[in-house]
Amino acid sequence: MDIQQNLQRIKERIAQAALRAHRDPDSVRLVVVVKEASLEQIIKLRELGVEDFGENYAQQLVKKYESVPDATWHFIGRIQTNKIKYIVPRCEYIHSVCRREEIVEIERVASKLKKRQKILIEVNVSGEETKAGVEQGSLSELLTFSSNFPHVEVIGLMTMAPLVEDAEQVRWVFRRLRELRDELVDRWPNVVHLSMGMTNDFEVAIEEGATMVRIGRAILKGE
Prior knowledge:
Elements: H1 3-20, E1 29-33, H2 39-47, E2 52-55, H3 58-67, E3 72-75, H4 84-87, E4 93-97, H5 100-113, E5 117-122, H6 139-146, E6 152-158, H7 171-184, E7 193-195, H8 202-207, E8 212-215, H9 217-220
Parallel strand pairs: 1-2, 1-8, 2-3, 3-4, 4-5, 5-6, 6-7
């Protein structure tokens, strides 16, 4: 299978999962993860109509952004505060924010650019020690803190589920993130997006309400 076939197959699976959940397939945004992609592959994907790219590493982002600057870029990896100056000028969305110092630095860089930076707060729903993310009980506090910064706009929540053979085993993680979003919506009406679901589990995530899925291997390698 080539990238074009892989991409089409993933789009079809996204649509089917959305329809099973009685959702409009267009309500799910495919973010193609390119941390393992070559520049040639990224250019090819853009030619195939991919609009959203996700990168995990700031240095790689700088290089890859230059190859398709007209795409929408999402930063989805762990954030090093000293690399935020490379991320904010290039990314419309930063998915993996979970610390106050990240928000402070995003504000500092975004204010210089006169930009309102869209971010998602990463929540460690599963409680795994190896996972990044704010604890569920501290989410409201971080949202309150973020509201002090005029150049930062929280537009959603993000999580990573544990890696398992059967995606049904992690359905509860995605459901819980949706419940958290729903609990917050009255106070934080802009917190609408749910960035959850990757190659192994994106269909279950969509059934539970994902609005952004982050898929790389299944498109690049056909896995």
